[in-house]
Design a protein that fits this description.
GO biological process, one term: negative regulation of DNA-templated transcription
InterPro entries: GAF-like_dom_sf (IPR029016), HTH_MetabolicPath_Reg (IPR050707), Tscrpt_reg_IclR_C (IPR014757), Tscrpt_reg_IclR_N (IPR005471), WH-like_DNA-bd_sf (IPR036388), WH_DNA-bd_sf (IPR036390)
Oligomer: single chain
CATH topology of the largest domain: Beta-Lactamase
Pfam families: HTH_IclR (PF09339), IclR_C (PF01614)
Number of domains: 2
Radius of gyration: 22 Å
Number of strands: 9
GO molecular function, one term: DNA-binding transcription factor activity
Largest sheet: 6 strands, antiparallel
CATH architecture of the largest domain: 2-Layer Sandwich
Strand order of the largest sheet: 6-5-4-9-8-7
CATH class of the largest domain: Alpha Beta
Protein name: DNA-binding transcriptional regulator, IclR family
Number of helices: 9
Order of helices and strands: HEHHEEHHEEEHHHEEEH
Structural class: alpha+beta
Distance between the termini: 29 Å
Length: 275
């Protein structure tokens, strides 16, 4: 509904609209022009200009003096850095990892992409530690193990091939795959199954079961369960796939803030080129 001719918005409504504008930025929508914003949010041009100017004045947005388009500004980076230094992503993930580890009696791991690896940002031990050293900060290479495979497999195939093609991969055990065609087969298999499973590829003594963490149709990391092969357990780690998938949905909802708020629909148009 258009704001044109409507009563003045209350301060809370104005703040909410400004937050909607910030949330509208995505990988595809990296900047806004005043007229585009007015159309997408069904508000008048002067309201759109005031919102963008106010956000830019506080550094949440940055205005290009040539194109007069607005993109995310340095305050966003500063707030993200503060959030991460105060626990941020790891603290959020703990809410899901702790009950998952308790329920499955396995180690639960949340990892995010880091070049040709995924990096563990949070882990909770269940049924005894998986390693003799802390898991947080550990890098899992793209070619070895389910924890990384669950992320790389669900990337766009062209994007994945651009990352993998021509790379020389390290061998960690006799079960590590290093041939890119074999790796591609495993990625395709993981997508078909909806999960990745590995045994002894990165660490000969461990098994892992992993699923991707999806955010608006794109993988942003992986959630995995890990266990030591010794001593033997009465159940198969793959029996816990439903619990792992449920936890992944919960974590995805937390990351997308769906756990607290319903998304506000905004017509996302393709950015236009400046003339």
């Amino acid at each position: 509904m258009s704001d044109t001719g409507a009563r003045p918005r209350s301060p809370l409504q104005t703040v909410d609209r400004a937050l909607e504008v910030l949330l509208s930025f995505t990988e595809r929508r990296r900047d806004w022009g005043v007229l585009e914003l007015a159309e997408a949010f069904a508000i008048d041009k002067s309201s759109a200009q005031r919102i963008l100017a106010a956000l830019a004045a506080r550094g949440f947005l940055s205005a290009d003096p040539v194109t007069r388009r607005y993109s995310l500004g340095p305050t966003m980076w500063r707030m993200a850095a503060v959030w991460e230094r105060t626990g941020g992503l790891a603290a959020l993930a703990q809410r899901v990892l702790e009950p998952l580890a308790f329920q499955t009696d396995r180690t639960a791991i949340f990892a995010v992409p880091d070049g040709l690896h995924v990096r563990c940002v949070a882990a909770v031990n269940g049924g005894g530690p998986l390693r003799s050293h802390p898991l947080v900060g550990e890098l899992y290479p793209a070619n070895a193990g389910a924890t990384s495979r669950a992320y790389f497999a669900f990337l766009d195939s062209n994007e994945r091939r651009a990352l993998i093609s021509g790379r020389v991969f390290a061998t960690f055990t006799e079960l590590t795959r290093t041939d890119e065609h074999e790796l591609e087969r495993l990625f395709v298999e993981a997508v078909a199954q909806g999960y990745a499973y590995s045994e002894g590829e990165y660490d000969y003594a461990t098994r892992a079961l992993a699923v991707p963490i999806m955010l608006r149709g794109r993988p942003v990391g992986s959630l995995s369960l890990g266990e030591s092969k010794y001593p033997a357990r009465p159940d198969d780690i793959r029996d816990h796939l439903p619990a792992l998938q449920t936890a992944a949905e919960q974590l995805s909802a937390l990351l997308d803030n769906r756990a607290n708020n319903s998304a506000v629909a905004v017509r996302q148009t393709e950015p236009t080129k400046a003339h």
